[in-house]
Amino acid sequence: MVNAIYIIVAALGAAFLLGLLKSEKRGTAYVITLFALSVMTWISAGWVWAFVMERAAPVDFLTGGTSPPFSINFRMGLPEAVLTLLASLTGLLSALYMKDVLCALGQRAMAVLLVAVMALTGIILTRDLFNLFVFFELAIISTAGLMLLSEDARALAAGFKYLIVSQMLSVFFLIGIIFAYHATGTLNIDGMATASLGLKAGGAIAFFFLFIAVVAELKPFPANGWGLDIYESAHPGFAAIFSAATSSAVIYAVDKLLLIGGAEWLPMATGIGVITFLAANLFALPQTNDRRLLGYSSIAQTGLILAVLGQRDILGDNVLYIAGGLLLSHAIAKAGLNWISGLVAGRELPDWAALRSRPILVFAFVTFIAMLSGLPPFPGFYAKWEMVRILAGEGRIALIGLILLGLLIEAGYLFRWFGYIIKREVPAQSVRCSPFQISAIFVALASGWALGFVWGELSNQYFGHDNLLLAIPVVFALTFLLLDWLPAWVKNSIAIVGLSLFFYLTFSDYDPLRMIFAIIFLIGGAVILLASYDSKGRRIGFYPATMLMFAGLILLIRATDTFGFFAAWELLTIGSYFLILRGKHSEPHALSYIIFSLGGAFLILAGFALAAQGAPLFNIDALAQLTQPLAPWVFLLLAIGFMTKTAAIGLHIWLPGAHSEAETDVSPMVSGILLKAGLFGLIVLLMTMGKQQLYGVELTYVMLWIGALSALLGNLMAIFQEDAKRLLAYSSIGQMGYALFGLALMNHLGWLMALMFVINHYIYKSMLFLSAGGVAKRTGTRDMYRMGGLITLMPLSFIATLIGIIAVSGVPPLSGFGGRWIFYNAIISSEYRLPMVIIFLAGPIAFLYLFRLIHTIFLGQLKDEYRKIKEAPFWFILPQMIYVALLLAFAVAPGVALRRVDTYLNQIFPGGGLQWTGTEISSAYGYWNPVAIMIIIAVIFGTLFAWLLFVNRKAQKVKQFNIVYAAERPYRPETTHFAWNFFAPYRKALGFLVQPFATRFWDGVTNTLHTAADISRRLYNGNGQSYAFHLLSFVVIAYLMRMGA
Amino acid sequence: MKDELKIRVVKGPDGVEFEVEPLKDYYCEAAPTVMPAAYIKVVEDLFNWARSESIWILGFGTGCGAIEMRPLMTPRFDAYRFGVQWRPTPRQANLFVISGYLSTKTLKRAIRSYEQMQNPKYVIGLGSCTINGGMYWDSYNTIKRLDDYLPVDLYIAGCMPRPEALLAGFQDMKKLIRAGKAEGANLYAENFEWYKANQKRVIHDWDMPDYNW
Amino acid sequence: MPFDWMKIPYSLLTLFIVVNYGFFLNALIQKMGARAGRRYGIPIWQNYVDMIKNYGLRSSITHGAMFYLGPVFRLSGGVGLLLFVPTIYGSYMFSNLSFAGDLILALYFIFFGTLGMALGAGESGHPHAAIGVSRGLAQVSTAELPFALAVFAVALQYQTLSVTEIVAAQQGGFLQWTLFTNPLAVAAAMLGFLGSMMRPPFDVVIAPQEIPIGPPTEYHSAYLALMQTNRAIFPIAKIVIYMNLFFGGASDWPTFFFKVFLIYLWSAFVGVVFPRFRVEQSIRWFLIWAVPLGILSIILV
Amino acid sequence: MTYIALATGFLLILIGFYGALTNRNLLRMIVAFTIANSGINVVIIAIGYMHGRTAPILDATVSAADALTRVIDPVPQVLVLTAIVIGVGVAALMLVFAYKLYERKGTLDISKFAELKW
């Protein structure tokens, strides 16, 4: 291996060489710069290879010919190698990226760049305190120098502010060094660590100064205004270095210092880190400038890593895996994002919509924000999981809460930004970029995915989790990224075949309960995908997202341990988010969806972590073995998490928008299929943990109430909707409420009913969404009152809707009745009376919105402009007809699906099941015979119909205005169609129940956050002196807290 | 013609423009036809008996005579005991009582309501005004002979006839129906052209299809 | 399971008896209403005549397929409701088709006709029909609630959903009737009953002059005849359920006629005494007066 | 003696910080920081000083052999040398920035350079 000193030497040598060149030889100078950076990269890469592949031991390099403390030594270990590689590679790529500006400014700029990278590698490598100081100062000086690269005139001021702060910091640093030296007699970091500096007289204060000086370089709150100014005004190429490399180097320096300070300084690191993480993320919320936003995010991320370092007492060896995962994710993502920011002309966040002209950049962006948000399959995800797991194991719950809160806020603004990119108008100035710039971004992108793979492998190796990037469904989904150039129908066929094939290959793996979900997810998904044949063109981005969602869904039911379950959960969340975001006006709704989902996911994460008690691999079934006092809390967290997905009342506000604004074939997927994921989670939870009590309150009883209220309020809200798909969406809330209620009953029949609802809801809600979507596609509106009288023009859609509403309402003979029948039998055996009353009220209300749905769309008066519209496209109708057939079949023979589940449920709830004798189904209380019902009703209906046809055979067919109109005649169909505010009396009587309390509450929360952030961030008033004052206050406060502690 | 009945050009959601002709597209254009009696006489007799014993009057008061109909619902006269009831919608009514003078404005509504009733249907002219205009014989805006516009089965003369007279009229009407002589609807269909010509002569702002189904 | 074909003629017999009794009872109640207004009222056979007249109308119009199906749904709902519940307790002959399902089937089948009728009315394109449906659905959603609660209280009380078993449990003297064993449930149900009979004060749904009789405003001739038949069957079918659940059922036809008459009389009695509620008033009325009784009955069972 | 030097050093640092925080003029701030830098240098020297010993220069008077007992610790001195160099470098850079800032806006008031904020 090459001596690590050559990394420094290469940079210094090249920098000197540049000084010798004539100023016109810029091309040569640039080549030399690149060469030097490549050499540095190559050396570091060599070391990484050595450590990873050959398992080499860390090596010390001595400089002065003697060993420390008499000389400075560099150490090259795995972390150093990775970090130097990171620093030099970022330097190299940024140099490529900044070719134009570097060549314009000449070799001096290049030399400064080389010095900057060299200083960073020095910070990483050195084991000498004073040497560290020197490299720090070099980094500061070169940073200030590189600020001059920026075209932004304000960069000057930012550089000056930075210098002010760093002047103060170097004073602290030097004080710290000299006192530390005085106390220990050495400048070697390891020497100081062995000398236990903190125990010596004045040692603590000496270390305090050292620590604070280095930590302050990480831009802790509130002493970080200067950092933001740099991010905002620096050249994006340099901002990438500053964010990715500088932060990483400084973090590593902090890590080294903590070696000296020992365990007692760890809480301080954690405290500063977490506060910074939260504050920076919070302040980022109202931010509109992209680079400043990136700055906030960088600061937040480094804060998070600092906090993780502060937990090394419990994280132990895992700290490398966790902090490393977070750090590398952060570095790659931030470098990439900063580079992209250089390609975008405007500085407002919505200006990034320009990226849409290059899908690869959008993909890069989304990769980067996923990495930052800690989503699978990137290292941050694994790191997040292990971190929370270990913290929970040690009972550091508050810290978990703060970190997850910060992550949620961060995901909030990042995904909001992504929403802008996908949905906002493309600005006039398009993306301008050179191949060099693209390749830099591309390298970041590739390394992001590669690291995802590496971390997956590591996770497999150390913790026994599966590598997500090796899971077949995920691979299948990601393949669509490569296939995106194919026409949509080809991809659609592949997707359908893939889903069906996967089911065919694995169907023997599932128990009857999972079988129902597997069929709905895989076969059900394939049926809905039939509707996607209607889309023309290539439909970029649709299939990867869809398949990712399905991958998550299928992995969810196949998961055996909590990690797999959680990973699948997040996968399906992201996949569905992308899907929902595709809708025309879905930007805000997709955002609230992802925020609620991630919030829920974090609760699940916390719940699982709490349950595992630090065990790396925790089987889901083992949830059953949890005991008081832990169990109810785990239950609570998981239940709330899952109920976020089923949109239980209070957590439901994301659903209506998300489901209604989604594309026509997406709505049935997210409603008919995705909601079941939440139910599946609840089933798993209740199956393993059963009834839990918290402070004497039975949690399933609370769920019962939530289910009942969801059913009632969901239905109530549905009846006041004017938008067909919104109506269906609210109806889903109600339906999920029923299912939740059934599950929470915790008896055999309750579960059977919930599963019946799972099946039914999939069929009829998919059908209704497709039907409503088809109508909306033809009419160009989803407002029901604008439609009317479409029955003759769209008869098949009408039939689907008719069958659908009969089934939803539970009227015999269709399958909805089976659900209601089991429901009544289930509650009769339950002792909970009050919530029953609520759910009773919900029942008839369903009729109201269902009738409204079919009446205002298909009946009543046809409008002028729709006189010539055609039936919905064939590919929309086909799945609907399949669903009609399914509904009828399921109505006649519910046993096909339910009988096996019924038997299976005996394992969980022995007894109390149904008897299946012939076609009759009976319980302990009642009986029904679906076949007989169907035949009887058909015979009665048929006879009467034939009779009426006979007696009215000569009826004159009239047209829509041939109605008695109090001796007048209708004027226009618009004024004759009674549809708008259809249930006005109901609103008068019960409208107070559907005041948007939940919406107001969540609006209040977000508004409070925004306002608080907007007011607080004015702390950063832009004045360098204020920043200096912040720094001093930070030092003083930190000191007081340290001493107080 | 009223604006809303003129041919208009509308644009469909797919951007294609086309014409909408309200009178054709929104109204049934078929002409009324003569409806034969039931093929079997016994059946027709039964029906005629039922029709006579179940007279549903359209609740539409056209003139001052309307005031004489209300007492029929009261305990004093109680027409219900004779099988006479009032229906608010012409679809379900069999008998249209033109109660007194009929202004041309109301005539249009009366025609519409009459045409919306189902065959067989009956018209009773109540009061002198329906016979010859009565005291409004020279009015500029009432019609004089109801029979010119709608096929009248029975007149109840007087100005105004009292409710007792109405009851007597209903009894006579029943006899007509039972005898199968109340075929006004078929008469109307047979002489449709003539009735329409008469109607259009007095109704100048004709803004409806020729036959209101 | 072998099907007993004799069920069919037996059921038709039940149907025949109930239709005739329904026509009779409707007229009788109408007459009683008239007498309360000091009128003589319609002849007792008037409803038959009206129905024959409606079949005898020579012309008819149709607004479309659902317009056709509306009355069919309506009458199927009535007939089905009747046949899914045993009419005479302990009689195989008049147990009808109750083997197909229990109480829940009957309860949900009530909506079959409602839904179909609403669809047919909607197809007519008449705004008044839609307004009527809107009112009707809004009102029935809360009117059914006390009934549903009471039914469930009864099911809880007897721990069964089978109508026959519920009736069986009430045998042995009138003190065994639910009326006396669970008076709260019966009170709630009987208040709900008022709402479902389309009589004052809950008949704004078919306000005759404002929205000319609401949903059926476009219906005439044979359509109307079918609906009239349903008007004879449906209240009886519904009352049969009430009778079975709350008043000990009927083990022979005279008891049946008597009990049905009395229960029917309750709605007529209230109907002639009270004026009309607006929809939101009736919703509130049910929620304030009837539903709490139902809730109490469920809790206290 | 050591304590006087130490005290002086810290006083200089404080004066420097005070000056930097109270003066809006860029040049004054730079000067203030230079003072603070001098202060820290003094502190370092003071800490490294051992009573009764001589400067760590090996020449005729101090031989390599008895250096261990006669000279003070050379490391702080070395540190100071480096620190001075770096301090000069930073000060020079700050002056360049000040100059450029003045060029841009014609003022040296730091509160006028607050476009970047929030």
Shape of chain A: elongated
Give the helix tally of chain A: 41
Task: Give the number of domains of chain B.
Answer: 2
In CATH, the architecture of the largest domain in chain B is: 3-Layer(aba) Sandwich
Strand order of the largest sheet of chain B: 5-6-7
* Biggest sheet record of chain A: 3 strands, antiparallel
First and last CA, distance of chain B: 20 Å
Biggest interface: A-C, 79 and 86 residues
Number of strands of chain A: 8
Description:
The complex is a heterotetramer of chains A (1045), B (213), C (301) and D (118). Chain B is of the alpha/beta class and 213 residues long. Chain B has helices at residues 22-25, 41-53, 66-69, 104-116, 129-132, 163-178, 184-190, 192-202; strands at 8-11, 17-20, 55-58, 84-87, 95-99, 122-126, 154-156. Chain B contains 8 helices and 7 strands; from the N terminus they run ββααβαββαβαβααα. In chain B, α5 (129-132) links the parallel β6 and β7. In chain B, α2 packs antiparallel against α6. The mean pLDDT of chain B is 89. Chain C has 301 residues and is mostly helical. Helices cover 69% and strands 1% of the residues of chain C. Chain C is globular. In chain C, α3 runs antiparallel to α4, α3 runs parallel beside α9 and α4 runs antiparallel to α5 (127-158). Chain C starts with 6 loop residues before the first helix and ends with a helix. The model of chain C has no long low-confidence stretch (mean pLDDT 88). Chain D has a single domain, classed as Helix Hairpins, CATH 1.10.287.3510. Chains A and C meet through α32, α33, α34, β7 and α37 of A and β1, α3, α4, α5 and α9 of C. β8 (956-957) of chain A pairs parallel with β1 (61-62) of chain C.
Topology of helices and strands:
The complex is a heterotetramer of chains A (1045), B (213), C (301) and D (118).
Chain A (H helix, E strand, L loop, with lengths): L4 H16 L5 H28 L5 E4 L10 E4 L1 H20 L1 H7 L1 H19 L3 H19 L7 H30 L4 H6 L8 H15 L7 H9 L2 H26 L4 H19 L5 H21 L1 H4 L2 H26 L15 H15 L5 H15 L3 H27 L11 H29 L8 H11 L5 H19 L5 H19 L11 H17 L3 H20 L5 H26 L17 H16 L8 H8 L4 H24 L3 E2 L2 E2 H21 L4 H22 L2 H32 L15 H15 L5 H14 L5 H25 L15 H19 L2 H14 L6 E3 L2 E3 L4 E2 L1 H22 L4 E2 L15 H4 L7 H7 L6 H20 L7 H21 L1
Antiparallel strand pairs in A: 1-2, 3-4, 5-6, 6-7
Helix pairs in contact in A: 1-2, 1-5, 2-3, 2-4, 2-5, 3-5, 3-11, 3-15, 3-19, 5-6, 5-11, 6-7, 6-11, 7-9, 7-10, 7-41, 9-11, 10-11, 10-13, 11-13, 11-15, 12-13, 12-18, 12-40, 13-15, 15-16, 15-17, 15-19, 16-18, 16-19, 17-25, 18-25, 20-23, 21-22, 22-23, 22-28, 22-31, 23-24, 24-25, 24-28, ...
Chain C lengths: L6 H30 L9 H11 L4 E2 L2 H19 L19 H21 L3 H32 L4 H7 L8 H4 L1 H14 L24 H26 L6 H21 L5 H22 L1
Chain D lengths: L1 H21 L3 H23 L18 H4 L3 H32 L13
